[in-house]
Amino acid sequence: MPDLLLELxxxxxxxxxxxxxxxxxxxxxxxxxxxxxxxxxGAKAFATPRRLALTVHGIPARQPDLKTERxxxxxxxxxAAVQGFLKATGLKSLDEAKIQRDPKGDFYIxxxxxxxxxxxxxxxxxxxxxxxTFPWPKSMRWxxxxxxxxxxxxxxxxxxxIATFGPExxxxxxxxxxxxxxxxxxxxxxxxFMAPAAISVRRFxxxxxxxxxxxxxxxxxxxKDIIFExxxxxxxxxxxxxVEDQVLLDEVSGLVEWPVVMMGSFExxxxxxxxxxxxxxxxxxxxxxVVKDPKTGKLTNKFVLTANIEATxxxxxxxxxxxxxxxxxxxxxxxxxxTDLKTKLEDRLPKFEQIVFHExxxxxxxxxxxxxxxxxxxAPLVGxxxxxATRAAHLAKxxxxxxxxxxxxxxxxxxxxxxxxxxxxxxxxxxACEEHYKPQxxxxxxxxxxxxxxxxxxxxxxxxxxxxxxxxxPTGSKDPYALRxxxxxxxxxxxxxxxxxxxxxxxxxxxxxxxxxxxxxxKLPNDLLAFFADRLKVQLREQGxxxxxxxxxxxxxxxxxxxxxxRRVEALGKFLESDDGKxxxxxxxxxxxxxxxxxxxxxxxxxxAPDAALYSLDEEKALAKAIGDVKAEASAAxxxxxxxxxxxxxAKLRPPVDAFFDKVRVNDDDAKVRExxxxxxxxxxSATRAVADFSKIQD
Length: 699
Description:
- This protein is 49% helix and 14% strand.
- By secondary structure, it is α+β, with helices and mostly antiparallel strands.
- The two termini are 46 Å apart.
- The mean pLDDT is 92.
């Protein structure tokens, strides 16, 4: 079966856009092929700084013929309807239609046959449309081509298009089309400097091989592997260790078509700057990797760069050029750092009086005071020293006004820690200056120092309550204030540090500290708790747990102790994995379903204790006794927060429930017996609610 090779050759594509562009090209072309009835075997897309490429394997040479039936008017219907039917279907007369019987009468049916087209013609039709409408996040138009103004909007000027199609055993054909005056062909170009000559290609295999011979590594992953392995080998050979950086590696691999790894150096005096500032300086300005001493773990005065050329001098000019740029950058960073050290963190705080956090929530200074007060309230609940937590909250945001953070925002918090230590603050206070932002994502570390935990919780809860109070909640995919991340951060801080605190009380306290009051202040903590429940479901789902169990626990009401919710959900999940749990769930749901039907029929509920005098069968008596025993045992276990024991107690219900449904007819002819048995079913539902609302659990 034929294969497609497509290459779009242009000026340099920004590295940050390449991976998505390659994926978009693959998706757009293959989706359109499938829509046209051309089901392919496989597809893979590639990107380099100067090209997007796509190969699609096993495309049928021709579309399948299509036969469709179109229903027309009723036999004997109006002439206008008949004529419209004939015109729409291309039939010459009703003799070419068939008649189909229907409960509503006899109708004319047209059998329409549409011959499939050659796949190459379909490609010639769909590919130019995809190119012209390609979803670049940013694009440009450029000058006239062949005397006509350019009409194509593309990320950078497009120079050539390869589009070939054909089976492996034959010479492929060019898929003929043009875009903005660029005719398709079989010509591409190698490395801009080392092999710029034109290259004629046939299909993907020789295309990739010829590009490699022309100093272009087509596969982005292959370029990443070369950079990473060569960088590790180069640093190891000199007794150092590469500081790995996946994000930088992704970016650098998009800047070069032929990666060549080299090492440079800078003056050792700059090592007096914190390692993170050195790394940010070298990374941000020159896209270079930093190097550390494996013995000390500290950075050395070396860096690794990736060139896009094999230089005749072995790279000396390239290395010295990078060193020449990095040196003044580090000098600036050193100046910023030393300047920052001359001003104490607390002396910067008055400036926050003039900085608005949010127009409805006041200044940063007001927010810092709220966080201080809330951190002091949370501190005893998490085992933190109140004075240290208050001091840490007071200083935590101060580094936002420093020169270094102004230049490198990504080191906020971290620089607060360095400056706090430099001015003699307690180690826990300094650590909290950095860690109060954490965790910032599912892979981020969760603070464990109680002072850091107190300030981190205060910071996040103040943010959540504040934006809830002004009705700026997340909607759909929009979350401009990262409130979902803040809620997940609170959940992880509580769960991973095994903390016991009432979210409702903390939220109410945070609300009391706000100058703005919502219309329904009483409702806010409950609304926020529901948001935490949703975030907890997300968290558990990502961990492979069943999020429906969260609903089953929250449905009991009055649950704002997240740690207990998590533990209860874990115990419930393990219980439902057992045979006892599965069968009890089935029995409970059967009882609930019967009750729902009968309650709807009788327009009443069957609350209240059953009458033991009306039990006529042993199975009724056994179930009633088991419910009484289990309810007491499970409630006692829950009170002790021993959820595993509560589940074990629940398991004892399984045999009598099974026996009851096997031997007892609920809807007895005697109305009193029927009512009593329905009340007994309600007791099953009531007993299981000691641990969860089983009706919320999915089968």
